[in-house]
Amino acid sequence: MKLGVTLGYSPPGTNPAELVPLVQEAERLGYDSAWAAEAWGTDAVSVLAWIAASTSRIKIGSAIMQIPGRTPANTAMTGATLDLLSGGRFVLGLGTSGPQVVEGWHGEAWGKPLAKTREYVEIVRAALRRELVEHAGEHYRIPYDGPGSTGLGKPLKLMLRPLRADIPIFLAAIGPRNVALAAEIADGWLPVFLAPERFDAAFGPSLARARDGFEIAATVSVLVGDDVQALRDALKPHLALYVGGMGAKGSNFYNALVRRYGWEAEADRIQELYLDGKRRDAAAAVPDELVDAVSLVGPKERIRDRLEAWRETPVTTLIVGSPQPEALRVLAELVL
């Protein structure tokens, strides 16, 4: 198992450059990859370029670049450029985000995300191979020939010669069909809130078509310390935000995931409280058992014991999410 580190989203009022020392420490410890995210704040691309310039070996990955935020051709250009600037260290993580973000921020119809993702990846791969990009699909038509077109568009190929035409593409996915799509068309899968003891039941059938060498890079929150309950409580607001607030009722994928894990009543209660504006109560409603299932908290010995469940899954990279340099060091001692 390899290790990665995630910078997550930069909170309002913070500068992602402040996290560069954390990535440099991860590189020194032998971590394989560093990942940046985007929602509707800092973008992943700028952060990854900064990280690439501040490191020499560690891979840089987007987890994720949002599909509705860029055309597939723009993503191909961006990926090829980051890969060239970093000396072949870039991993392209893609995802659709949820309907609230897609329609509320990017101004695009939610539509059919599975079909759109399939077309998107196909176009990105063709562009990276420096083929003339021509695509006549339901979601993308290149050259564009729809309403308002001039008819002057012509197929083009990437001017830049990519350092690698086969930049790895990972897909973020939670639902069974999305995970199955990742296994079918991508080089890897980016799960979040993964519960290792429930891995086979929740995801096994969806991964049946995964090819040899398919990567699973799972993000896990890690906090090291002796007061286990305090560490659990520190993570509960984060879980409550996702389970309760990242999506409307009936279209919150994180809520659906927790329900699939077996916490149906708890997921309903967290969402009800969160959407009613009772965020502290929502955090308090997150079960200790759920925190333990999807994170690594406690002293080094407890984390070592919990890692055994992760080793029994097909996860190939554990992406550590933690503000603690100590957590990076503990995981390095236990895994590398």
| Uncertain parts | none
Percentage of β-strand residues: 15-25%
Order of helices and strands: EHEHEEHEHHEEEHEHEHHHHHEHEH
Question: What is the average of the pLDDT values?
Answer: 96
Number of H- or I-type helical stretches: 14
Task: Give the strand order of the largest sheet, numbering strands 1, 2, ... along the chain.
Answer: 1-2-3-5-8-9-10-12
Helix and strand content put the structural class at alpha/beta
End-to-end separation: 8 Å
Number of strands: 12
Task: Determine the fraction of residues in helical runs and give it as a percent range.
Answer: 40-55%
Shape: globular
Biggest sheet statistics = 8 strands, parallel, barrel
Q: Rg to the nearest angstrom?
A: 20 Å
Blueprint of the fold:
Elements: E1 2-6, H1 20-29, E2 33-36, H2 44-54, E3 59-62, E4 65-66, H3 72-85, E5 90-95, H4 99-104, H5 113-128, E6 135-136, E7 141-142, E8 169-172, H6 176-185, E9 188-190, H7 199-203, E10 215-224, H8 228-245, H9 253-261, H10 264-275, H11 279-284, H12 288-294, E11 295-298, H13 300-311, E12 317-321, H14 325-335
Parallel strand pairs: 1-2, 1-12, 2-3, 3-5, 4-5, 5-8, 8-9, 9-10, 10-11, 10-12
Antiparallel strand pairs: 6-7
Helix pairs in contact: 1-14, 3-5, 8-10, 9-10
Describe the protein's architecture and organization.
The protein has 336 residues and is of the alpha/beta class. 44% of the residues lie in helices and 15% in strands. An 8-stranded parallel barrel has the order 1-2-3-5-8-9-10-12, surrounded by 5 helices. The longest helix is centred in the last third of the chain and has 18 residues, at 228-245.
